[in-house]
Amino acid sequence: MDFSGYFAQACEANGIIGAVERSGDFGRLHAMLVEFNRGVNLTAVTGEREAIIKHYADSLTALKYLPQRPDTLIDVGCGGGFPTLPLAIVRRDIAFTALDSTEKKLRFVDMAAKELSLGVKTLCARAEDAGRDPAHREAYGIVTARAVARLNVLCELCLPLARVGGVFIAMKGPSGLEEAREARIAAAALGGEISETAQFTLADPFGGEEMERVIIVIEKVRPTPEGYPRQYGRIAKKPL
Description:
Blueprint: H1 3-13, H2 23-37, H3 48-60, E1 71-76, H4 84-90, E2 94-100, H5 103-115, E3 120-124, H6 127-130, E4 140-146, H7 151-158, E5 162-172, H8 176-189, E6 192-202, E7 211-220, H9 232-237
Parallel strand pairs: 1-2, 1-4, 2-3, 4-5
Antiparallel strand pairs: 5-7, 6-7
C-alpha cells in the first residue's frame, strides 16, 4: 500500500473528514520532512505509518473544532509545523501564523509552506513576548497549542493572543481532563472560559499503540487584563 492508502486508512479510523482529498500534499509534506530531518533534528518520528498517525492524524483531530468561517490562527510552539502544516493543507481559507522560538524548525515550516502553497507565515518569538506585542496581542480568531506545557501555563501564553470572540484550542494527552479542571481559574483570570472538553482515542489501524487524547476549547469572552502575560519565569514558578 502506498502513502495515500495508509493516510486514508488513518483518517477513516479516526473519523477525520475532508483530508483524504489532500493525501498527495501530505505525501509531499512527509517526503520533505524526511529529507530535512537528515540535516536538522526535527523529530524522532519519520517512519511513514508512524508519522501518519503521530504527526498528521493527531494534528487533524483539531479540524472539527475550528470555526467554519475564514479566520486567522496562530499556533503556539509549533515545532516542526504540527498542527500548523496539516491543518493548513486542509483549511486553505485560514491564515496561519506558526510561532516558535527555534529558528531552525521554522525554516522547515517556511520551506514546506512555500512548496505546498499554504497560507502560513512564521514568527520566531517567545509566546509571552508575542502576547505583549500590539501586532499580535488579541489579534487572532484561533489559537492552537499541542503538547507545549500544562494548561494553566498555556492559558497565560495563549489567551492574550486570542481576540474576544475567538477560541483557544489546546491539544493534550491523557492528563488533559485533570489539566482542564486545574486551569479553570487561570482561564477566567485571562478572559477565557472553558466551553468544551473532548476525550478520545487516537486509533492506529497499523497495529501501533492507541493513544488517549483530550482537546480543550476555551472561548475568549473578555479582554486579557494588562500585566499578562508575565515573563515566563514567573509564569512557570507561579502559574495562575
